[in-house]
Amino acid sequence: MKKYKLLIVCLVLAMCSCTKDLVSLDYSEINPNIFPKSAADLEAMVNAAYYPVRGSYGNGIFSTSEKGVMFLSDATTEILYGPYGDQFLATMHNFRSSDLAFTHYYDDYYNKISMMTNTIDLIEKSTVTDDLKKRAIAQVRCARGLLAYTLYDLYGPIVIAPLDLLKNPLKEEPLARLSNDEMVAYIKADLVAAAADLPAPAEAEYGRFNKALAKMIQIRLALHEKNWQEVLTLCNDIIAYGYYSIDPDYVGMFGLEGAKNSRETIWAIPCDYQGTSENQWQLMVLPAVFAPKGGFGTIQSTWYFYDSFEAADKRKTLLLSEFTGTDGITYNRANPGTLINFGPIPLKIDQDANRTTGLTTVDIMMYRYADVLLSKAEAIANISGPNQEAMDLITRVRTRAGLTAKPLASYASLAQFNDLILLERSHEFWCENGQYRADLIRMGKFVSRTQEVKNSTYTGPNKVVYPFSQARIAEGKGKFIQNPGYN
């Protein structure tokens, strides 16, 4: 384990009205006796907490490139197929502790949790008003809870450095990973506290955290733990805000201003051409010969996934199964070349044909109200068995997709109903936040689906979590235990 050092030099960001207005500032020699003293000081520290949970190839965990969570997570499922490189390792579940693409999430971001812990301590000791402190700490705790949940979902329990150790940076003390119960309690405590003091959805600035997001991450945590009653309670809390609704235009939500204008969006990451927060998805998925503006074509979907949609399903609109390239060739399933031979182009978002760089202004959609409805349906079915209330929630999501209701009689068993939930989740949330991987794991189908779709001989029960790097294991001096199957 690395030495934990008190942060004395911190690169932070300053926001104006929303994330698109970020400006880099350099605050040096942070001293708890003199900093922060004003609302502006607090804002700078809060913005530093948003920094690692944005989209950025170099240092944002929700990058839409292969460095971000969604890209490789969806590549471990039937949604995406990577023909080479790290995405091929993800596709085949052939990742090992020597593969930096799978160990870097922990290596690059676990210390950001420590940074946020120090930030909270500095805010608590500041001389600003209690109200300003409360609002600032709520945002930092939401960021810390989100980041801790993300790493927990990828690796299982992680190391959490306590504040007293962070205050003694010269003391080198290897730490063990938390137990599962301790990890869940840590994440939940942050998110519960954040939800209490964050603004309501109607009052929050776009791109900033709100009560519903804190509860939505709690829902994902409770789903992970199969705590169905907690899932149900949290879903009802978000519904009771009376703010969110299902957007009638599924494709439009992923347009240039779609996320910002939709009442379905719980949280999206604002992006711009300048790369304050980056979305380079078109660059990742569009082939070089795609007109009018191509990309690198680094990953495809699968024909298995495409065929799982009903014919009228609007959600497959931007799974592009045919296009005519700038080379004059029409590529389709019958003539795929090497561009769509594994599956269609998983564009998902507006192609932003007028973009002048590899980046786009389409915001990164992270969490939506549809997830609340499908989570509630799953919770009801697992508590009381499949019933019409649960099916009606699924129908609300399917109706927006242009589909008819499913008869409850055809999904009378819990196994059948959960299969329907899983299918709807894949169709609804493909190439968004990467959480479908967790859905497959929860349903016990992560390994079998990869064997079925990709004929992988590398997958196995241990692949439900990623490995830690050997550097972290060595630094742990026997206290930091590697995940099974990666030694």
UniProtKB/TrEMBL annotation:
Localization in the cell: Cell outer membrane
A Pfam family that the UniProt record links to this protein: SusD_RagB
Domain SusD-like N-terminal: 38-212
Keywords annotated in UniProt: Cell outer membrane, Membrane, Signal
SUPFAM superfamilies per UniProt: TPR-like (SSF48452)
A GO-annotated cellular component: cell outer membrane
Segment forming the signal sequence: 1-20
Domain RagB/SusD: 350-457
Similarity-based family: Belongs to the SusD family.
Name of this protein: Glycan metabolism protein RagB
